[in-house]
Design a protein that fits this description.
single chain; alpha/beta; four-stranded mixed sheet; 3 helices; 8 strands
């Protein structure tokens, strides 16, 4: 037995409409269903659930855990400008590929990234000084 892939991501949110607006209007997610306590959205093969929660975080978690979203090279510049104007940037990019690290309205750490696992692995193969063993 093996996991086939990522099924969906559920994010706890304080205000469904506020988060729905952010994910739809800023990130371009497609709204698939809405109810009083949540919503289902879609971006490519990603299924995102927004679920209203009274215990939603008040500040971002201090660790590096985040969700990275793929964007095309063509869309990156415009999307970067939009995010820098409409969200908090929580980290500067120091990795392979173009990235912007930003917070959603509830402080969930997100990233838009141009690249793939293959491009990341190739980067490490081309940069042996990083001491990453590519399998």
């Amino acid at each position: 037995m093996t996991v086939l892939g990522l099924n969906h991501i559920t994010l706890a949110v304080a205000d469904v409409q506020r988060s729905l607006t952010f994910y739809r209007d800023i990130l371009g997610f497609r709204v698939r269903a809405i109810w009083a306590e949540g919503a289902y959205l879609e971006a490519g093969s990603l299924w995102l659930c927004l679920s209203r929660d009274d215990h939603v975080r008040q500040t971002p978690h201090a660790d590096y855990t985040h969700i990275a979203l793929s964007v095309s090279e063509d869309a990156f510049a415009n999307m970067s400008e939009t995010l820098m104007s409409n969200s908090v940037i929580w980290k500067e990019n120091r990795s392979e590929g173009h990235s912007v690290y930003f917070l959603d309205p509830d402080g969930h750490k997100l990233e838009i990234h141009v690249g793939s696992l293959e491009s990341r692995l190739q980067h490490y193969l081309n940069t042996p000084s990083k001491n990453v063993q590519v399998l």
